[in-house]
Amino acid sequence: MTGTVLQLNVSRGGIPKRAIPSGELMAAGVAGDAWRYPFHGGVRKAILLITIEGIDELVSRGFPIFAGALGENLTTRGLDRRALRLRQRLAVGSAVIELTTIRTPCATLDVYGTGIQAAMYDAQVQKGNPDSPLWGLSGFYAWVVQPGIVRAGDAIVLLASPRPGSEAGLKTGLYIT
Questions:
Q1: Cis preceding-peptide flag for 21 (omega within 30 of 0)
Q2: Prediction pTM value
Q3: In what order do the strands lie in the sheet with 29-30?
Q4: Residue 113 is assigned to a structural domain of this protein
């Protein structure tokens, strides 16, 4: 599975995030990015990835959103959200990220319309069921396995599945290859 970085996004906190031409993905997230609330972010949620195809699907349902509107750091093109799975690793520019969890949408997104949370997240997604038609619409959080530079237009490539125990890197801050 391959795709491209449509947009790399940051903000000083809150939504929307605005496009930047390039940035550094670090353990804490994208350099220069911030969160309004401390429970957002952290090592396991350093990066939020959302597909433009998913954004387009929500636009077709009447929600006035755009790349960066949902607070994502990486807006991608060409990745099939329905085929993405937790623990998959993606090479993005010179960085490598690992998908850690599905994003649970919060009431902050209601500025884009009542019902947006239900349009992107259901009980099946909450249970981790990738068979839900809403799988991945709310986005995927990821941790940064290998820091690096990312630019709009960079390729995104699915890498081999991680070894069992890669979660240990999250606890120690180290990742041993």
A1: no
A2: 0.89
A3: 29-30, 22-26, 148-151
A4: yes
Q: Dump pLDDT digits (tens) for 9-43.
A: 999 988 999 999 999 999 999 999 987 655 566 78
What is the pLDDT at residue 38?
A: 59
119 domain-assigned = yes
Q: Which residues of the chain have pLDDT under 50?
A: 167-177
How many domains does one find in the chain?
Answer: 1
Residue 162 located in a structural domain: yes
In a domain, 124, yes or no: yes
Residue numbers of the domain that contains 54: 2-172
Cα separation, 117 vs 176, whole angstroms = 37
On whether the CB atoms of residues 83 and 1 are closer than 8 A, the answer is yes
